[in-house]
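SAMPLE LOG
Freezer: B-3
Tube label: C17
Construct: single chain, 472 aa
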Amino acid sequence: MDFFDFDNEEFENADEIRELILQFENAVKQNKPAFFDQDDFESIIDYYEQIAQYDKALRATEQALQIHPNSPSLILRKANLAFQLKDTATAFELIELIQSLDATDIGSYILKAEILTAQSRYKEALDILKKLENTIENEDLVDICLQISDIYEETSRYDHVFEYLKKCIIINPDEQEALRRINYCIDVTQFYEEGIIFFQHMIDMYPFNHHLWYNLGCAFRGMGLTEKAIEAFEYVIAINEDEDYAYIDMIELLIKEKNITKALDVINDLTEVYEPDEEVFLLHGKCFEELGNYKLARYYYKKALHLEPAFGFIYYKIGETYKKEGLWEQAYQAFQKAAELEKEMYDFHIALIESAMEINEIEIAIDACEAAIENYINKEDAYILLAKIFFNLNDFETALEILHNCKKTCKEHTQADHAEIAVLFLQNKVKECELKLAYLMEEDNLNSDYIYKFHQELEDNNDFQMIIIHYL
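STRUCTURE (predicted):
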């Protein structure tokens, strides 16, 4: 049998587990029965499940059952493994066997409901779980409520998801899965106010539970109550300074609020507790970018890049700092790398096009526009940039054709409508230009900023200003 990599092994007794695995694998290799007590077999099974080697976990379970044939827990493990390996018929048969041995085995009912849920037999699964919910009063109730919330999430009944996750947290305020999922649920339902009320109530009972404070901060953030969110995250850190996610969320909010001095202080606090990773270096860089210190911002972005050399977003951020300094050649190189690494990121391609235009790499800009239009057919920006390239080349007919294609293809084409006005005016098609202006005015959609964004010189063109004033 193959040896396994234990470097990422998460068991507390790693050495003991390693020895058990080696003994078990040697027994299999020599085609001999493996003799372990039930706890050791369970540890072996746990290991194989941990690394998603379900076929090997099943082999260990079957050998364990040869020695411990009437163990409901081992039969349940075999049923669960059969389910993982898509053998639901065997899983159901084993569940029936368990229940014939012990009709009160909660795990067998939970597994049966899980299998029914996977088969989209939601009502049957809920019937099983609701019966259990009404009869159980211990920690097992958390697992049942989590599974009920799974079913409601599968059927997009998020109000019920919210209620059952609250039940889990009431039973166990440290239940990580429920705490994590309720944040998502609150975002989907926008039950921010209800979330705030719930977590404030829980904090009244458990004032030093940093998980509850964190979720309260997330709910405040969803409501746009930034100062309260920051205060809640500060409580998280005051209770447990090791919660790096609270630092990160607080820093992001402080940057959003332009409170860069405090954001930098929090970054310093964080780096006293944790070795900074690429996310922290990115936030550090973003602070200095907000302060206009682009050289120092790049220093931190490049430190992030050293840790994550294939992360296109970092190249994009570096490109943005060069762009803000008007260093278009360097910006182009950074955006080119970002777009190359993450081809699906539309914004990276738009930035590449803009920088290519600035350094007069027209053919590259045209190719990039055409690629972006082909890959992101409903996006307006690439059409506008391509039209602008031909407009700047005085090829007004091609520019108009591109804008017309944009309007036929894209649901949102406000920029194209306004760009068309600039092209028509420069073609001396003043009547058509005025008709377009009148149409946009009638639709309450006229915004001269879009026109000047396409061709800034029109802002200083007296003839055009006389026309635009009439319609504004």
